[in-house]
Queue: 2 jobs
Job 1
Amino acid sequence: MILRLWRGVTPLEKAQGFLEYMKQTGVPDYLQSQGNRGAMIISRSDKTHTEFQLLSLWDSIDDLKRFGGEDYEVAKYPFPRDREFLIKLEEKVEHFDVLMWDMRCKDSG
């Protein structure tokens, strides 16, 4: 299994709106893709910005290529309001081999 990690930063005042926007656009896009095994959004804020990370699990590189294209390490921004929320559009995403995964929580909300 492979973990895909995308990062984005918003101004603090746009954080809640961006979270809702991701839940309506990016997350369903991931979850509806062949080979996707789930997605998680995490964040942290300071006094002026909120950093979001969208982590998703995939069965294989081939599944990632079907989702993101042949150059699957290039970040995707397919939704029209991405630029409205994000301070900078990251060019790349990161991928990691999942060596162990023991998920005990049901749902964090």
Job 2
Amino acid sequence: MNKEPKVALVFDWLTTAGGAEQVNRELLEIFPNAKIFTSLYNPQKVKGFENAEIETSFIQKIPFAKKKHQIFLPLMPYAYESFDLSEYDIVISSSHSCAKGVITKPETTHICYCHTPMRYAWDNWHEYINQYKINWFVKKLSKKMMHKIRIWDKLSADRVDHFIANSSTTKKRITKYYRKDSKVIFPMLDTSKYKIAKKTKGYFLAVGRLIPYKRFDLIIEAFNELGIELKIAGTGIMNDELRAIANENIEFLGYVSDEDLLKAYSECEALIFPQLEDFGITPLEAMASGRPVIAYGKGGALDTIIDGTTGMYFKKQTKESLINKIKEFQKIKNKFNTIEIQKHAQKFDKKVFQKQILEFVKEKHKASK
């Protein structure tokens, strides 16, 4: 009688709540008996892994590492290469950084769910280094360090047997930087949680971590000029800076509970999504609530939003382009069908994701025998 293959899950870090962490929770739900390996784990910040068996790296013991994981990037390759995965038949890494760099036996099937090739090492690494608030010496050091990180990242990609991309954009990046093929399986959400409000409350909504590439500065510039109501849900390193430049029509909600966020989505006029994302889960959350999305027309948004049906695209990442699209939306907003928008979002339900992941893993593991 053949025994069930032993599965390990490898995550970059579990220190902040975001889209990757939602995928990680889903992978654990698909493989509930899997052991988790990760560089860092902060149970106060990331929920849903309380009952899992988790092994962290030596970085976990370094003071402040759980709060400032970014500065320990040079140690991450050593951390992942130190994990002993020799007893596992299947290793599934969920990676936008270093998790895919684990070392496995030749007979182990290593599948990487790739959120993006390491963003701060490849296509927009100059932007990352310049935008983040770190002193000049660290910036200079980071630029030199990235050369070595880039070499290791490419080598670590060669350790993966099969890639899954979270979007068409990520698939292209995997081909470009790793010279590997991949299958696209979109991230998911539990669409049963989202409800359509009887009436909207007249405000626009933006949701996410307040960090440079999310472009909340662009949203604030636009709404300062428009003078219409905007609510921002989220926290991050740009919190004080963004509050300082915002007019009175903009309300910062800070951290928002799941229940309050569901309500905020359902009662907004539209979600504003100005960043270039590999995928982006917040547009799906808004659409699952029947609300349209005004998004920058590049990246992962192209996989989820139907222009003119479930949202609208603005073409340039500028204040003027966003303002013009919001004005256009206000003229035609009653044409958007909330039921149709919600039905579209249901195509990305967690049950679809679970089925596709399980089928892919079984197929690739069986083929390796």
